[in-house]
């Protein structure tokens, strides 16, 4: 039986997972790849990221939730629950700035356009949000075990019957792929926007889905050579991948970026939406 607990502040909702199968806390903590942490030590990569413009988003449908993680802690997410009961879920993964209002807005846009799909924007920074490059380059150094624990907690939160697709940008692009690997047979789709790909072919072999990769030809952080290597590794793993390359730099689809490319973003969004509708069967 699901139980909702409303705190006095009205901000968080805690949901037990006992009725959804084994608790996440019965599992060993996963160790996921985070090559973005290494990239963040490179000053030129850090400078690729224009600092986000101020923005406040007031959600019409979402709320912050808490869920347990197998390292004995809790994690947060921004939840948009489908009007009708469904096991279809989309996990949204933040850029390296954190779960800010831009990500919440994008999560709600996907929620409105997909319809009949639950959307959970997973907070990978435990409530911290960066507004400067320097802050982001420090926050992205989350221990790999903690990243894995947060993902495991999110997967347990939605339950063993959930069909999960994922999407993310930059740091979140890499996390989208790691999440897809970690969710195993529950994974039905994965979209990566200019994120660091997994290089371990053996891990890629465990993917239960094909992958949609969206990248910028002018991205010196995740350059075309990295994308080509990813394609080769996916082929070696026996997995399908579709790549869409835009004549654009890193983070071109980020509306908080002063260098935001509106045309490329709109095209990429439509491709992403079509992919997610097909894979989530909505």
Describe the structure in your own words.
The protein has 282 residues and is α/β, with parallel strands linked by helices. It has a single domain (4-280), classed as Rossmann fold (3-Layer(aba) Sandwich). It has nine helices and ten strands. It has helices spanning 35-39, 43-46, 101-114, 133-139, 144-158, 171-182, 201-204, 224-236, 262-280; strands at 4-6, 12-15, 63-68, 74-80, 88-93, 118-123, 163-169, 187-193, 211-216, 241-246. It has a ten-stranded mixed beta sheet with strand order 1-2-3-4-6-5-7-8-9-10, with helices on both faces. Strand 5, helix 3 and strand 6 form a beta-alpha-beta unit. The longest helix is centred in the C-terminal third of the chain and has 19 residues, at 262-280. The relative contact order is 0.15. GO terms for molecular function: hydrolase activity. This is Dienelactone hydrolase family protein.
